[in-house]
Design goal:
This protein is mainly alpha-helical and 105 residues long. It has a domain of 37 residues. The chain has a two-stranded antiparallel sheet with strand order 1-2. The N and C termini lie far apart (75 Å).
Amino acid sequence: MSGKSRSSVGASAKSDVPAADSWVDPDDAPEWTEEMWQRAEIRKGDRVIRPGRPPLDDLLKKATVTIRLDPDVVASYKTLGTGWQTKINDDLRKARKLGPKRKAG
């Protein structure tokens, strides 16, 4: 022997670092409660992602109105499929010479 003794790491230092062969089963984690879900933050990178759409500024908001139209007019727009109400809005803007509305974003 060379006379030098090897120093060994104490048990307390070993317990702070998980062993390379230790594996934790994710099924052993406790079930999430409703309270945990309510407090959870969803993040993408450094930003917190909030649920729902971002609020629109006042110029982009639409007014909810009730308007009486002839049945054949409504039927002709409904044949256009999804977005038929937007098409009515676009046609009214053109008829009143209001120009296109600016887009969100």
